Amino acid sequence: MYQEMDAKVRIKKPAVAVEDTSTANEVLQAMNGISERAKNLVVFVNKKLAPIQKIGYPSPMNEEVKSKEYPPFFEEIRAQLMEINRSLDDIENAMYRVDL
Asked: What's the rounded Cα separation, in Å, for the pair 55 and 98?
């Protein structure tokens, strides 16, 4: 998904080659930030709810079914949306396991 880390500012560079000042790059950076926030929320929710959760099974990992090819920019957007969707599934799974 990401080819390298920028050592100066520690921001992940998208695999798609776009100009740093372009709108496309801003969109990809925003999506990356939201995706990272969703992953961090999964960790927080699971940690916070661990004392009141039933032991459950991890949510099944659905294999991605790629029905069509997208241009690189849209493929990056699709990949970020899939990450966000997985995080939401994990949060939903954590909430179902809460035993009050």
From this structure: 9
Enumerate residues 6+ apart whose C-beta is below 8 A from 5: 11, 12, 13
Q: The tokens of 14 are what?
A: 């998208």
Domain coverage including residue 45: 23-58+69-100
3 has pLDDT over 50: no
* Torsion 44-49-50-51 (CA) sign: positive
Q: Is 87 exposed, middle or buried (0-12, 13-18, 19+ CB in 10 A)?
A: buried
**78 falls within a domain:** yes
Average pLDDT over every residue of 47-69: 78
